[in-house]
Write a structure and sequence with these properties.
The protein has 428 residues and is an alpha/beta fold. The protein is built from 13 helices and 20 strands. The strands form five sheets. A ten-stranded mixed β-sheet has the order 9-7-5-2-10-1-11-15-19-20, with helices on both faces.
């Protein structure tokens, strides 16, 4: 049975949980393979809304084993806050698996993230201030703290001492902040060790064994393609690989295990934070999308930047990730618009460019070339078959599919789990 990867095909917040829900009871494992609590997703079940930041959305599905794998950076306090909140609402969280090799976000990572961003002034990247970048930097610099270190106090103390030896100089001499003591970090981390111990395992081994046994394993990417540290709009990106390739390195399964890659696109485009965004709207249309689509960050509450659908970005994502299926979300948000523009190419220095420019400068100055499609006024939130959508809504989906580089296999028509139109089987 296959490993399936779900990734965001734009700048995040596309509604990846919708695809996870669609696969539902057929999934045995749901794996978070990158990022931390710097991004979240909202899952609506009946009249209940769940905001998840660190946990994979599969934790809300009965019979599914949720996994936080080695590519994730974990704020342990946030982890237990989320688990306790779900437990209080009757959600069984006892099956959660956590990789022993995942790195830990500490107090000094969060502090450095915030003071460094403020220090940048007008050159700010737009981080969430949750310590994600500094934790990944320590991982690459080989001074990180891993989950397994909590179970050996001597090793933990040595690693914290090594990390703070440099960081305290930076905090005190550059940022005029107080030094952080080794004891306060060690004591804080050790306070979680015994609660965490039953969840910690060799997740790579378990996932490979599950695939060998014919289980279906779903890998759920955090953030999105255009925020990938290698393939996104660098430096306005996250600090991990949020593309499909990251599922392999971030979990310990071989790339030949992955048989399907599902890319999630909104029927329009949004992004949070700084960086280029060719189709961004600054008029009443942008506010229409923001208010009707409730485009505010699940984790930060920040209003999202909004714009029309960008087909070159979709094609780019299809190539980079090897997308086999797109799932389009929030088609219902476009209801009521007389005309819906779609970006089909860009103009850069007077020249038409059909693909995402490799030059960051060119992309920043790219002017979208639009093609307009007629809108519709009918309520589509109750539609469950493609042929029951308004004719203009069908035409919009088919036109976008033709220029996006991959088939659109499912369409979200409302916030609820059941509000989806299926055109093709996502498993084959």
């Amino acid at each position: 049975m296959p490993a399936i990867v779900i990734i965001g095909a734009q700048w995040g917040d596309e509604g990846k949980g919708k695809a996870t829900d669609l696969l539902g009871s057929r999934i045995d494992y749901v794996v978070k393979f990158n990022g931390g609590n710097n991004a979240g997703h909202t899952v609506v079940i009946g009249n209940q809304k769940y905001a998840l930041h660190l946990l994979p959305s599969g934790i809300l599905t009965d019979g599914v084993i949720p996994v936080i794998s080695n590519g994730v950076v974990i704020d342990i306090e946030v982890l237990f806050d989320e688990l306790e909140a779900l437990n209080a609402r009757g959600v069984d969280v006892s099956k959660l698996r956590v990789s022993a090799n995942a790195h830990i976000i500490t107090h000094y990572h969060r502090t450095l993230d915030k003071v460094t961003e403020r220090f940048l002034g007008k050159k700010q990247i737009g981080t969430t201030g949750r310590g994600i970048g500094p934790t990944y930097a320590d991982k690459i610099n080989r001074v990180g703290i891993r989950i397994q270190d909590l179970f050996d106090e001597n090793i933990l103390r040595q690693k914290v001492e090594a990390a703070l030896d440099q960081k305290n100089h930076l905090l005190v001499k550059v940022y005029n902040r107080r030094a952080i003591t080794v004891d306060e970090i060690v004591e804080n981390l050790l306070s979680y060790a015994e609660r965490l111990r039953p969840m910690v395992t060799d997740t790579a081994l378990e996932l490979n064994n599950a695939l060998d046994a014919g289980k279906i394993v779903l890998f759920e990417g955090g953030q999105a393609t255009m925020l990938d540290v290698d393939h996104g709009t660098y430096p306005f990106v996250t600090s991990s690989n949020s593309t499909a390739g990251g599922a392999s390195t971030g979990s310990g399964i071989g790339p030949n295990r992955i048989e399907r890659v599902i890319g999630i696109v909104k029927a329009y485009t949004t992004r949070v934070g700084a960086g280029p965004f060719p189709t961004e709207l600054f008029d009443e249309s942008g506010e229409f999308l923001r208010s009707k689509g409730f485009e505010f960050g699940t984790t930060t509450g920040r209003p999202r930047r909004t714009g029309w659908y960008d087909a070159p970005i979709a094609r780019y994502s299809a190539r980079i990730n090897g997308v086999t299926d797109f799932v389009m979300t929030k088609l219902d948000v476009l209801t009521g618009l007389e005309s819906i523009p779609v970006c089909v190419a860009y103009e850069v220095d007077g020249v038409r460019v059909d693909e995402v420019p490799v030059s960051q400068s060119d992309f920043h100055h790219a002017v979208p070339i639009y093609e307009d499609f007629p809108g519709w006024t009918e309520d589509i939130t109750g539609v469950r078959a493609f042929e029951d959508l308004p004719v203009n809504a069908q035409a919009y989906v088919l036109a976008v599919e033709a220029i996006s580089g991959c088939r659109i296999s499912a369409i979200g028509v409302g916030p609820g789990r059941e509000a989806i139109v299926v055109r093709h089987n996502l498993l084959g």
